[in-house]
Protein backbone atom coordinates (compact mmCIF):
# COMPACT_ATOMS: atom_id res chain seq x y z
CA UNK A 1 0.00 0.00 0.00
CA UNK A 2 1.47 3.40 -0.89
CA UNK A 3 2.31 5.46 2.14
CA UNK A 4 0.33 8.63 2.81
CA UNK A 5 3.71 10.04 3.85
CA UNK A 6 4.92 10.15 0.22
CA UNK A 7 4.54 13.84 -0.61
CA UNK A 8 2.00 14.65 -3.26
CA UNK A 9 0.98 10.99 -3.68
CA UNK A 10 -2.73 10.36 -4.20
CA UNK A 11 -2.75 8.80 -0.72
CA UNK A 12 -1.25 11.94 0.86
CA UNK A 13 -3.67 14.19 -1.02
CA UNK A 14 -6.57 12.00 0.09
CA UNK A 15 -5.54 12.31 3.72
CA UNK A 16 -5.19 16.06 3.30
CA UNK A 17 -8.56 16.69 1.65
CA UNK A 18 -11.12 13.90 1.91
CA UNK A 19 -13.43 13.30 4.86
CA UNK A 20 -13.90 9.53 4.63
CA UNK A 21 -17.22 7.78 5.21
CA UNK A 22 -17.22 4.86 7.68
CA UNK A 23 -13.58 5.29 8.67
CA UNK A 24 -11.61 5.76 11.86
CA UNK A 25 -10.36 9.19 10.88
CA UNK A 26 -7.48 9.22 13.34
CA UNK A 27 -6.15 5.90 12.07
CA UNK A 28 -6.70 7.00 8.49
CA UNK A 29 -4.09 9.72 8.81
CA UNK A 30 -1.50 7.10 9.77
CA UNK A 31 -2.35 4.31 7.33
CA UNK A 32 -3.81 6.24 4.40
CA UNK A 33 -6.19 4.87 1.80
CA UNK A 34 -5.94 2.04 -0.66
CA UNK A 35 -6.18 3.89 -3.97
CA UNK A 36 -8.18 1.79 -6.43
CA UNK A 37 -7.57 2.71 -10.04
CA UNK A 38 -9.23 0.23 -12.32
CA UNK A 39 -11.34 -2.90 -12.47
CA UNK A 40 -11.75 -6.03 -14.59
CA UNK A 41 -14.34 -8.70 -13.95
CA UNK A 42 -14.26 -9.59 -10.25
CA UNK A 43 -10.86 -7.90 -9.82
CA UNK A 44 -9.81 -4.36 -8.94
CA UNK A 45 -6.27 -2.93 -9.13
CA UNK A 46 -4.57 -0.33 -6.96
CA UNK A 47 -2.23 2.45 -8.07
CA UNK A 48 0.74 0.06 -7.79
CA UNK A 49 -1.18 -2.31 -10.12
CA UNK A 50 -1.63 -4.89 -7.37
CA UNK A 51 -4.60 -7.14 -8.10
CA UNK A 52 -7.40 -7.82 -5.61
CA UNK A 53 -10.42 -10.08 -5.83
CA UNK A 54 -13.29 -7.83 -4.78
CA UNK A 55 -14.87 -10.26 -2.34
CA UNK A 56 -17.56 -7.75 -1.38
CA UNK A 57 -18.51 -6.53 -4.88
CA UNK A 58 -17.57 -3.09 -3.55
CA UNK A 59 -20.32 -2.53 -1.00
CA UNK A 60 -22.45 -5.61 -1.83
CA UNK A 61 -23.36 -3.98 -5.12
CA UNK A 62 -21.29 -4.52 -8.28
CA UNK A 63 -23.15 -7.67 -9.32
CA UNK A 64 -21.76 -7.63 -12.86
CA UNK A 65 -18.21 -6.93 -11.72
CA UNK A 66 -16.06 -3.97 -12.65
CA UNK A 67 -15.80 -3.94 -16.46
CA UNK A 68 -19.21 -4.55 -18.02
CA UNK A 69 -18.99 -2.76 -21.35
CA UNK A 70 -22.71 -3.04 -22.07
CA UNK A 71 -23.46 -0.84 -19.05
CA UNK A 72 -20.88 1.72 -20.14
CA UNK A 73 -22.50 1.76 -23.60
CA UNK A 74 -25.98 2.20 -22.10
CA UNK A 75 -24.73 5.16 -20.05
CA UNK A 76 -22.96 6.80 -23.00
CA UNK A 77 -25.94 6.36 -25.29
CA UNK A 78 -28.31 7.97 -22.78
CA UNK A 79 -25.79 10.69 -21.86
CA UNK A 80 -25.55 11.70 -25.52
CA UNK A 81 -29.32 11.69 -25.96
CA UNK A 82 -30.43 13.36 -22.72
CA UNK A 83 -27.93 13.55 -19.84
CA UNK A 84 -30.42 14.76 -17.26
CA UNK A 85 -34.06 15.26 -16.72
CA UNK A 86 -36.46 14.84 -13.82
CA UNK A 87 -39.91 13.59 -12.99
CA UNK A 88 -41.28 16.54 -11.02
CA UNK A 89 -44.69 17.77 -12.07
CA UNK A 90 -45.92 16.03 -15.18
CA UNK A 91 -42.59 15.15 -16.81
CA UNK A 92 -40.85 11.87 -17.42
CA UNK A 93 -38.20 10.16 -19.53
CA UNK A 94 -38.23 6.88 -21.46
CA UNK A 95 -35.65 5.01 -19.35
CA UNK A 96 -37.62 5.71 -16.16
CA UNK A 97 -40.86 4.41 -17.67
CA UNK A 98 -39.18 1.30 -19.07
CA UNK A 99 -37.39 0.59 -15.80
CA UNK A 100 -40.64 0.93 -13.84
CA UNK A 101 -42.32 -1.52 -16.24
CA UNK A 102 -39.44 -3.96 -15.89
CA UNK A 103 -39.39 -3.78 -12.09
CA UNK A 104 -43.13 -4.30 -11.92
CA UNK A 105 -42.79 -7.38 -14.10
CA UNK A 106 -40.06 -8.76 -11.80
CA UNK A 107 -41.80 -7.88 -8.56
CA UNK A 108 -43.07 -10.64 -6.28
CA UNK A 109 -45.82 -8.27 -5.05
CA UNK A 110 -48.91 -6.77 -6.64
CA UNK A 111 -47.10 -3.48 -7.22
CA UNK A 112 -49.03 -0.42 -8.29
CA UNK A 113 -46.26 2.10 -8.81
CA UNK A 114 -42.50 2.49 -8.50
CA UNK A 115 -40.82 5.51 -6.91
CA UNK A 116 -37.16 6.18 -7.76
CA UNK A 117 -34.51 7.64 -5.44
CA UNK A 118 -30.70 7.69 -5.53
CA UNK A 119 -29.68 5.17 -2.87
CA UNK A 120 -30.89 2.77 -0.22
CA UNK A 121 -31.11 5.38 2.53
CA UNK A 122 -33.30 7.63 0.41
CA UNK A 123 -35.53 4.70 -0.54
CA UNK A 124 -36.09 3.72 3.10
CA UNK A 125 -36.56 7.33 4.15
CA UNK A 126 -39.14 7.65 1.41
CA UNK A 127 -40.94 4.57 2.68
CA UNK A 128 -41.28 5.96 6.20
CA UNK A 129 -42.72 9.16 4.77
CA UNK A 130 -45.06 7.24 2.45
CA UNK A 131 -46.32 5.12 5.32
CA UNK A 132 -46.95 8.18 7.53
CA UNK A 133 -48.63 9.99 4.64
CA UNK A 134 -50.77 6.94 3.95
CA UNK A 135 -51.86 6.57 7.57
CA UNK A 136 -52.61 10.29 7.88
CA UNK A 137 -54.67 10.13 4.70
CA UNK A 138 -56.66 7.27 6.21
CA UNK A 139 -57.24 9.20 9.44
CA UNK A 140 -54.98 6.85 11.42
CA UNK A 141 -52.98 9.74 12.76
CA UNK A 142 -51.57 7.86 15.76
CA UNK A 143 -50.39 4.82 13.78
CA UNK A 144 -46.84 6.06 13.24
CA UNK A 145 -44.29 3.99 15.18
CA UNK A 146 -41.88 2.15 12.92
CA UNK A 147 -40.20 -1.06 14.05
CA UNK A 148 -36.89 -2.40 12.86
CA UNK A 149 -34.40 -4.77 14.39
CA UNK A 150 -31.25 -4.72 16.47
CA UNK A 151 -28.33 -5.22 14.03
CA UNK A 152 -30.47 -4.28 11.02
CA UNK A 153 -28.97 -1.86 8.50
CA UNK A 154 -31.15 0.49 6.49
CA UNK A 155 -28.99 3.53 5.79
CA UNK A 156 -27.62 6.72 7.28
CA UNK A 157 -30.09 9.58 6.82
CA UNK A 158 -31.76 10.69 10.05
CA UNK A 159 -34.70 8.34 9.52
CA UNK A 160 -32.89 5.43 7.88
CA UNK A 161 -30.02 5.59 10.39
CA UNK A 162 -32.69 5.45 13.08
CA UNK A 163 -34.01 2.26 11.44
CA UNK A 164 -30.48 0.90 11.49
CA UNK A 165 -29.93 -1.04 14.70
CA UNK A 166 -26.17 -0.60 15.10
CA UNK A 167 -24.63 1.54 17.87
CA UNK A 168 -22.06 3.28 15.64
CA UNK A 169 -24.86 4.77 13.55
CA UNK A 170 -26.57 6.26 16.61
CA UNK A 171 -23.85 7.21 19.05
CA UNK A 172 -23.31 10.97 19.22
CA UNK A 173 -25.64 11.52 16.26
CA UNK A 174 -28.58 11.88 18.70
CA UNK A 175 -30.32 8.91 17.10
CA UNK A 176 -32.58 7.00 16.85
CA UNK A 177 -35.53 9.36 16.55
CA UNK A 178 -38.40 8.65 18.94
CA UNK A 179 -40.83 7.13 16.47
CA UNK A 180 -38.45 4.34 15.46
CA UNK A 181 -37.98 1.39 17.82
CA UNK A 182 -35.92 -1.76 17.66
CA UNK A 183 -36.93 -5.36 18.32
CA UNK A 184 -35.03 -8.67 18.49
CA UNK A 185 -32.30 -9.73 16.10
CA UNK A 186 -33.05 -13.22 14.70
CA UNK A 187 -29.51 -14.57 15.03
CA UNK A 188 -29.91 -18.02 16.53
CA UNK A 189 -26.16 -18.55 17.06
CA UNK A 190 -25.83 -15.39 19.17
CA UNK A 191 -29.23 -14.88 20.76
CA UNK A 192 -30.75 -18.33 21.38
CA UNK A 193 -31.03 -19.21 25.05
CA UNK A 194 -29.31 -22.30 26.43
CA UNK A 195 -31.02 -25.43 25.14
CA UNK A 196 -33.52 -23.49 23.02
CA UNK A 197 -34.37 -25.13 19.68
CA UNK A 198 -34.66 -23.02 16.51
CA UNK A 199 -38.44 -23.44 16.61
CA UNK A 200 -38.55 -22.27 20.24
CA UNK A 201 -36.30 -19.33 19.39
CA UNK A 202 -38.61 -18.27 16.55
CA UNK A 203 -41.69 -18.66 18.78
CA UNK A 204 -40.03 -16.53 21.48
CA UNK A 205 -39.14 -13.77 19.01
CA UNK A 206 -42.67 -13.75 17.58
CA UNK A 207 -44.10 -13.55 21.10
CA UNK A 208 -41.69 -10.77 22.06
CA UNK A 209 -42.79 -8.85 18.97
CA UNK A 210 -46.44 -9.30 19.85
CA UNK A 211 -45.82 -8.24 23.47
CA UNK A 212 -43.93 -5.18 22.23
CA UNK A 213 -46.77 -4.19 19.90
CA UNK A 214 -49.34 -4.66 22.66
CA UNK A 215 -47.26 -2.59 25.08
CA UNK A 216 -46.91 0.21 22.50
CA UNK A 217 -50.57 -0.07 21.54
CA UNK A 218 -51.32 -1.69 18.16
CA UNK A 219 -53.04 1.49 16.96
CA UNK A 220 -49.73 3.31 17.22
CA UNK A 221 -47.53 0.85 15.29
CA UNK A 222 -47.38 1.49 11.55
CA UNK A 223 -44.70 -0.70 9.99
CA UNK A 224 -41.90 -3.21 10.38
CA UNK A 225 -38.69 -2.94 8.33
CA UNK A 226 -36.43 -5.94 7.79
CA UNK A 227 -33.65 -7.11 5.49
CA UNK A 228 -34.14 -10.75 4.46
CA UNK A 229 -30.50 -11.31 5.48
CA UNK A 230 -29.01 -8.66 7.74
CA UNK A 231 -26.00 -7.48 5.75
CA UNK A 232 -23.88 -4.86 7.50
CA UNK A 233 -25.04 -6.23 10.88
CA UNK A 234 -22.96 -9.34 10.08
CA UNK A 235 -24.63 -11.41 7.31
CA UNK A 236 -27.22 -12.78 9.70
CA UNK A 237 -29.60 -15.36 8.26
CA UNK A 238 -32.88 -15.82 10.10
CA UNK A 239 -34.13 -19.31 10.96
CA UNK A 240 -36.31 -20.78 8.22
CA UNK A 241 -39.65 -20.15 9.94
CA UNK A 242 -38.81 -16.70 11.33
CA UNK A 243 -40.41 -14.47 8.69
CA UNK A 244 -43.69 -16.42 8.38
CA UNK A 245 -44.04 -16.28 12.19
CA UNK A 246 -43.30 -12.55 12.31
CA UNK A 247 -45.63 -11.83 9.40
CA UNK A 248 -48.50 -13.52 11.21
CA UNK A 249 -48.07 -11.09 14.11
CA UNK A 250 -47.81 -8.07 11.83
CA UNK A 251 -50.95 -9.02 9.92
CA UNK A 252 -52.87 -9.54 13.16
CA UNK A 253 -52.26 -5.91 14.14
CA UNK A 254 -52.53 -4.39 10.65
CA UNK A 255 -48.86 -3.44 10.53
CA UNK A 256 -47.26 -2.92 7.12
CA UNK A 257 -44.08 -4.82 6.32
CA UNK A 258 -41.12 -3.61 4.30
CA UNK A 259 -38.52 -5.93 2.83
CA UNK A 260 -35.28 -3.97 2.49
CA UNK A 261 -33.82 -5.77 -0.53
CA UNK A 262 -30.98 -3.30 -1.03
CA UNK A 263 -28.46 -6.16 -0.70
CA UNK A 264 -30.60 -9.25 -1.24
CA UNK A 265 -32.48 -8.10 -4.35
CA UNK A 266 -31.67 -9.25 -7.90
CA UNK A 267 -30.43 -12.76 -7.38
CA UNK A 268 -27.98 -12.53 -4.49
CA UNK A 269 -29.70 -15.25 -2.44
CA UNK A 270 -30.57 -17.51 -5.40
CA UNK A 271 -33.99 -15.96 -6.11
CA UNK A 272 -34.70 -12.54 -7.55
CA UNK A 273 -35.78 -11.38 -4.10
CA UNK A 274 -34.65 -12.33 -0.61
CA UNK A 275 -38.28 -12.38 0.55
CA UNK A 276 -38.83 -15.33 -1.83
CA UNK A 277 -35.84 -17.17 -0.37
CA UNK A 278 -37.14 -16.69 3.17
CA UNK A 279 -40.80 -17.36 2.41
CA UNK A 280 -42.63 -14.11 3.07
CA UNK A 281 -44.68 -11.55 1.21
CA UNK A 282 -44.00 -7.98 2.32
CA UNK A 283 -46.22 -4.99 1.52
CA UNK A 284 -43.32 -2.88 0.20
CA UNK A 285 -39.84 -3.46 -1.18
CA UNK A 286 -36.89 -1.08 -1.23
CA UNK A 287 -34.01 -1.93 -3.56
CA UNK A 288 -30.80 -0.37 -4.91
CA UNK A 289 -27.18 -1.53 -5.34
CA UNK A 290 -27.42 -4.48 -7.79
CA UNK A 291 -30.35 -2.72 -9.46
CA UNK A 292 -27.72 -0.93 -11.56
CA UNK A 293 -24.83 -3.20 -10.60
CA UNK A 294 -23.76 0.02 -8.81
CA UNK A 295 -22.50 1.59 -12.05
CA UNK A 296 -24.68 4.61 -11.28
CA UNK A 297 -26.63 5.46 -8.12
CA UNK A 298 -30.30 4.57 -8.25
CA UNK A 299 -32.82 2.98 -5.90
CA UNK A 300 -36.47 2.06 -6.12
CA UNK A 301 -39.46 1.71 -3.83
CA UNK A 302 -42.14 -0.77 -4.87
CA UNK A 303 -45.52 0.54 -3.73
CA UNK A 304 -48.65 -1.65 -3.62
CA UNK A 305 -51.71 -0.53 -5.59
CA UNK A 306 -53.99 0.09 -2.59
CA UNK A 307 -51.40 2.30 -0.87
CA UNK A 308 -50.83 4.19 -4.10
CA UNK A 309 -54.58 4.81 -4.47
CA UNK A 310 -54.73 6.48 -1.03
CA UNK A 311 -51.59 8.54 -1.70
CA UNK A 312 -52.98 9.61 -5.08
CA UNK A 313 -56.26 10.83 -3.58
CA UNK A 314 -54.51 12.64 -0.76
CA UNK A 315 -52.13 14.42 -3.15
CA UNK A 316 -55.18 15.61 -5.07
CA UNK A 317 -56.63 17.08 -1.88
CA UNK A 318 -53.36 18.67 -0.71
CA UNK A 319 -52.44 19.83 -4.21
CA UNK A 320 -49.25 17.81 -4.60
CA UNK A 321 -47.39 14.74 -3.43
CA UNK A 322 -44.63 16.80 -1.84
CA UNK A 323 -41.71 14.42 -2.03
CA UNK A 324 -38.98 13.74 -4.61
CA UNK A 325 -35.24 14.03 -5.25
CA UNK A 326 -33.48 16.09 -7.93
CA UNK A 327 -31.62 12.96 -9.01
CA UNK A 328 -34.35 10.41 -8.28
CA UNK A 329 -34.99 8.51 -11.49
CA UNK A 330 -31.98 10.09 -13.23
CA UNK A 331 -32.37 9.00 -16.87
CA UNK A 332 -28.76 7.83 -17.25
CA UNK A 333 -28.93 5.80 -14.03
CA UNK A 334 -32.31 4.42 -15.13
CA UNK A 335 -30.91 3.43 -18.55
CA UNK A 336 -28.01 1.63 -16.86
CA UNK A 337 -30.35 -0.10 -14.40
CA UNK A 338 -32.64 -1.21 -17.21
CA UNK A 339 -29.67 -2.64 -19.11
CA UNK A 340 -28.47 -4.35 -15.91
CA UNK A 341 -31.80 -6.11 -15.43
CA UNK A 342 -31.83 -7.13 -19.11
CA UNK A 343 -28.34 -8.60 -18.75
CA UNK A 344 -29.37 -10.54 -15.63
CA UNK A 345 -32.08 -12.15 -17.75
CA UNK A 346 -30.14 -12.54 -21.02
CA UNK A 347 -27.23 -14.22 -19.24
CA UNK A 348 -29.44 -16.19 -16.85
CA UNK A 349 -27.82 -14.68 -13.77
CA UNK A 350 -30.16 -16.60 -11.47
CA UNK A 351 -29.13 -19.86 -13.13
CA UNK A 352 -25.48 -18.87 -12.74
CA UNK A 353 -25.83 -17.93 -9.06
CA UNK A 354 -27.54 -21.24 -8.34
CA UNK A 355 -24.92 -23.15 -10.33
CA UNK A 356 -21.91 -21.70 -8.47
CA UNK A 357 -23.49 -21.14 -5.03
CA UNK A 358 -22.90 -24.76 -3.89
CA UNK A 359 -19.15 -24.28 -4.42
CA UNK A 360 -19.27 -20.94 -2.56
CA UNK A 361 -21.25 -22.41 0.32
CA UNK A 362 -19.07 -25.53 0.52
CA UNK A 363 -15.98 -23.35 0.90
CA UNK A 364 -17.70 -21.15 3.52
CA UNK A 365 -18.90 -24.22 5.44
CA UNK A 366 -15.36 -25.67 5.40
CA UNK A 367 -14.12 -22.51 7.13
CA UNK A 368 -16.37 -23.48 10.02
CA UNK A 369 -13.78 -26.14 10.95
CA UNK A 370 -11.13 -23.50 11.55
CA UNK A 371 -10.31 -22.93 15.25
CA UNK A 372 -10.95 -19.18 14.92
CA UNK A 373 -14.35 -19.53 13.25
CA UNK A 374 -17.34 -19.75 15.59
CA UNK A 375 -19.99 -19.79 12.89
CA UNK A 376 -19.73 -20.00 9.10
CA UNK A 377 -22.99 -19.05 7.41
CA UNK A 378 -24.50 -18.05 4.10
CA UNK A 379 -26.88 -18.69 1.24
CA UNK A 380 -26.59 -18.09 -2.49
CA UNK A 381 -23.58 -15.86 -3.08
CA UNK A 382 -23.45 -14.17 0.30
CA UNK A 383 -21.83 -15.47 3.45
CA UNK A 384 -19.70 -14.78 6.49
CA UNK A 385 -17.42 -16.25 9.08
CA UNK A 386 -17.68 -15.08 12.67
CA UNK A 387 -14.29 -15.12 14.36
CA UNK A 388 -14.32 -15.97 18.07
CA UNK A 389 -11.81 -16.24 20.90
CA UNK A 390 -13.41 -19.46 22.15
CA UNK A 391 -15.33 -21.73 19.80
CA UNK A 392 -16.97 -23.70 22.60
CA UNK A 393 -18.34 -20.79 24.60
CA UNK A 394 -18.74 -18.52 21.52
CA UNK A 395 -16.82 -15.86 23.41
CA UNK A 396 -15.92 -12.95 21.13
CA UNK A 397 -12.57 -11.21 21.07
CA UNK A 398 -12.38 -7.91 22.94
CA UNK A 399 -13.41 -5.16 20.51
CA UNK A 400 -10.01 -3.51 21.06
CA UNK A 401 -8.18 -6.67 19.92
CA UNK A 402 -8.97 -5.78 16.29
CA UNK A 403 -8.91 -9.40 15.13
CA UNK A 404 -11.41 -8.92 12.30
CA UNK A 405 -9.55 -5.83 11.09
CA UNK A 406 -6.24 -7.73 11.22
CA UNK A 407 -7.74 -10.56 9.17
CA UNK A 408 -9.04 -8.04 6.64
CA UNK A 409 -5.57 -6.50 6.34
CA UNK A 410 -3.92 -9.91 5.88
CA UNK A 411 -6.49 -10.65 3.20
CA UNK A 412 -5.55 -7.43 1.47
CA UNK A 413 -1.90 -8.51 1.52
CA UNK A 414 -3.04 -11.75 -0.13
CA UNK A 415 -4.94 -9.84 -2.83
CA UNK A 416 -8.46 -10.10 -1.46
CA UNK A 417 -10.82 -7.36 -0.38
CA UNK A 418 -13.35 -8.46 2.22
CA UNK A 419 -15.20 -6.64 4.96
CA UNK A 420 -14.77 -6.97 8.72
CA UNK A 421 -17.93 -6.01 10.55
CA UNK A 422 -18.72 -5.55 14.23
CA UNK A 423 -18.13 -8.65 16.35
CA UNK A 424 -15.32 -9.81 14.06
CA UNK A 425 -17.59 -11.02 11.32
CA UNK A 426 -15.91 -11.31 7.91
CA UNK A 427 -18.35 -10.87 5.04
CA UNK A 428 -18.19 -12.32 1.53
CA UNK A 429 -20.43 -11.01 -1.22
CA UNK A 430 -18.50 -11.18 -4.51
CA UNK A 431 -19.77 -10.00 -7.89
CA UNK A 432 -22.45 -12.46 -9.00
CA UNK A 433 -20.50 -13.18 -12.21
CA UNK A 434 -17.84 -15.02 -10.18
CA UNK A 435 -16.91 -18.48 -11.53
CA UNK A 436 -16.21 -21.66 -9.56
CA UNK A 437 -12.44 -21.37 -10.06
CA UNK A 438 -12.54 -17.73 -8.96
CA UNK A 439 -14.51 -18.79 -5.87
CA UNK A 440 -11.74 -21.27 -5.07
CA UNK A 441 -9.09 -18.60 -5.60
CA UNK A 442 -11.00 -16.21 -3.32
CA UNK A 443 -11.24 -18.71 -0.46
CA UNK A 444 -7.65 -19.91 -0.97
CA UNK A 445 -6.51 -16.33 -0.48
CA UNK A 446 -8.78 -16.00 2.56
CA UNK A 447 -7.47 -19.21 4.12
CA UNK A 448 -3.92 -17.86 3.83
CA UNK A 449 -5.07 -14.64 5.53
CA UNK A 450 -6.79 -16.58 8.30
CA UNK A 451 -3.61 -18.63 8.87
CA UNK A 452 -1.70 -15.37 9.39
CA UNK A 453 -4.42 -14.11 11.79
CA UNK A 454 -3.93 -17.09 14.16
N1 LIG B 1 -30.36 -0.96 3.20
C1 LIG B 1 -29.45 -1.94 3.21
C2 LIG B 1 -29.89 -3.35 3.46
C3 LIG B 1 -28.11 -1.66 2.96
O1 LIG B 1 -27.19 -2.64 2.99
C4 LIG B 1 -27.73 -0.33 2.69
C5 LIG B 1 -26.32 0.00 2.41
O2 LIG B 1 -25.43 -0.79 2.58
C6 LIG B 1 -28.71 0.66 2.72
C7 LIG B 1 -30.01 0.31 2.95
C8 LIG B 1 -28.35 2.09 2.48
O3 LIG B 1 -28.04 2.29 1.16
P1 LIG B 1 -27.19 3.57 0.69
O4 LIG B 1 -25.83 3.42 1.27
O5 LIG B 1 -27.26 3.47 -0.80
O6 LIG B 1 -27.90 4.77 1.19
From TrEMBL:
Gene Ontology molecular function, alphabetical? adenosylmethionine-8-amino-7-oxononanoate transaminase activity; pyridoxal phosphate binding
The residues the entry assigns to the signal sequence are none
Q: Which InterPro entries match?
A: Aminotrans_3 (IPR005814), Aminotrans_3_PPA_site (IPR049704), PyrdxlP-dep_Trfase (IPR015424), PyrdxlP-dep_Trfase_major (IPR015421), PyrdxlP-dep_Trfase_small (IPR015422)
Among the GO biological process terms of this entry, one is: gamma-aminobutyric acid metabolic process
Query: Organism's domain of life?
Result: Bacteria
Alphabetical keyword list: Aminotransferase, Pyridoxal phosphate, Transferase
Which CDD domains would you find in this protein's record? Answer: OAT_like (cd00610)
Indicate the family of this protein: Belongs to the class-III pyridoxal-phosphate-dependent aminotransferase family.
Q: What name appears for this protein in its UniProt entry? A: Aspartate aminotransferase family protein
Question: Which organism is this protein's natural source?
Answer: Ferrovibrio terrae
Amino acid sequence: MPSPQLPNSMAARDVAHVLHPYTNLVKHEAVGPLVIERGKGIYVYDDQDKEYIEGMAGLWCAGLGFSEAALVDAAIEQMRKLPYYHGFGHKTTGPVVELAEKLKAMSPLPVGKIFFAEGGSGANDTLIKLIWYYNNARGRIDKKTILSRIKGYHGVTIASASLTGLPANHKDFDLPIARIKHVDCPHYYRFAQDGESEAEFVARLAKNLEDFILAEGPDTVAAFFAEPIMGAGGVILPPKDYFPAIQKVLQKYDILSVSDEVICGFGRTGNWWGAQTFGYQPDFISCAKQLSSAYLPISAVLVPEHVYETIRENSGKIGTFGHGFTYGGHPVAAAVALRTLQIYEERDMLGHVNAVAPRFQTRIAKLGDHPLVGEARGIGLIGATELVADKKTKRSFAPTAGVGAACMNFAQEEGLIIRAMGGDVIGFCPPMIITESEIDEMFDRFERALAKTM
